[in-house]
Amino acid sequence: MLDELKEEEIVNKVGGRFKLSTLIQKRLVQLNQGSRPLVKMKTADRMKVVLQEIMQDKIYLDASHQVRITGDMPDIRDEPELNLNDL
Length: 87
Fold this sequence. Notes:
By secondary structure, the chain is mostly helical. The chain has helices spanning 3-6, 8-14, 17-32, 46-55, and strands at residues 59-61, 67-69. The protein contains four helices and two strands; from the N terminus they run ααααββ. Strands 1-2 form a two-stranded antiparallel ribbon.
């Protein structure tokens, strides 16, 4: 289990465990369908990316349980998203 999920801070940040699991699931679907990460990380683990996006207040669930993005997109054009050497 990821350490971030053991913390109550992330649960409280999104408003409960149900909202947290919904937000994670919906954002993972977006990333798997080709959306760009909103945080710079040197990992291909999308779950870690989503958790960092939540912790940095980059994403949230609106009243209709849709994922919304806040803040500015980081400039990630200078680094590749996938390093083939990591495979």
